[in-house]
Amino acid sequence: MGFLVMFCIALAVSAIGFHKFVWFISLGYGFSMVAIGVALLVMFAPGASADATVPLVMSALLVAYGLRLGGYLLVRERRSAAYNKVMKTQVNDGSGLGLPVQILVWGSCALLYACEAAPIYFRLANGTPADACAVVGAFIMVGGIVLESAADLQKTAQKRRNPHRFCDEGLFSFVRCPNYLGEVLTWTGVLVSGLTALAGPWQWLAAIGGYVAIVYVMFGGARRLELRQNRNYGSDPEYQAYVRRTPILLPFVPLYSVADCTWLKG
């Protein structure tokens, strides 16, 4: 029942995508996580035992994560002319999609958001005591949120100094998409936190499915960014050198391009 509540909450919040299609996966994503985190705190915090401390902290982290992401995307959309240009020319605005398809996208997004948060919910709902997996997962989640936040701040600062140059300083000198790496780490932490709490095939399916889906989306986003940067900077020798030496998403993993992976969508 609690999982259904999370799904319905995500449906309600992400419905803003019917006003602007991209909001299904941007503002709807961030603020759905805020609402899910608040719902978990309301459902489980009153009268909770010490064993619930870690997953309740992670529920609060969901709120912080969503507020940070949603706020960042909202400010960027309102202030960045370059971002709005990309949204208009390179991102599907949903205008060619019929209502049934939009409803399918809406429901799929809401289900994904509920599945991503599922390991936290299942640990609380199952009453599983805090253990090493919960603590390690929480720390990984914090690290992912910090990394993603720092990458977004660094990108904003670099683009403000030189809006026509690709970002290759700070975290971007280690991987070309550190913000997406932070996203992957965040949900890796959530999954790890639930590994010893999941019970039955349904709970495992929801948790693993949500994690695999968001990792796929992040690699798809990295591909979309790579294709756009290739168009914008492909003739720049400095950019070509940067691409050859800097992994696209995973540090120390010699994966430098996913441009040819046409099966990736994000």
UniProtKB/TrEMBL annotation:
<feature type="transmembrane region" description="Helical">
    <location>
        <begin position="180"/>
        <end position="198"/>
    </location>
</feature>
<dbReference type="GO" id="GO:0016020">
    <property type="term" value="C:membrane"/>
</dbReference>
<keyword id="KW-1133">Transmembrane helix</keyword>
<feature type="transmembrane region" description="Helical">
    <location>
        <begin position="21"/>
        <end position="44"/>
    </location>
</feature>
<dbReference type="Pfam" id="PF06966">
    <property type="entry name" value="DUF1295"/>
</dbReference>
<feature type="transmembrane region" description="Helical">
    <location>
        <begin position="56"/>
        <end position="75"/>
    </location>
</feature>
<protein>
    <submittedName>
        <fullName>DUF1295 domain-containing protein</fullName>
    </submittedName>
</protein>
<keyword id="KW-0472">Membrane</keyword>
<feature type="transmembrane region" description="Helical">
    <location>
        <begin position="134"/>
        <end position="151"/>
    </location>
</feature>
<feature type="transmembrane region" description="Helical">
    <location>
        <begin position="204"/>
        <end position="222"/>
    </location>
</feature>
<keyword id="KW-0812">Transmembrane</keyword>
<feature type="transmembrane region" description="Helical">
    <location>
        <begin position="96"/>
        <end position="114"/>
    </location>
</feature>
<dbReference type="InterPro" id="IPR010721">
    <property type="entry name" value="UstE-like"/>
</dbReference>
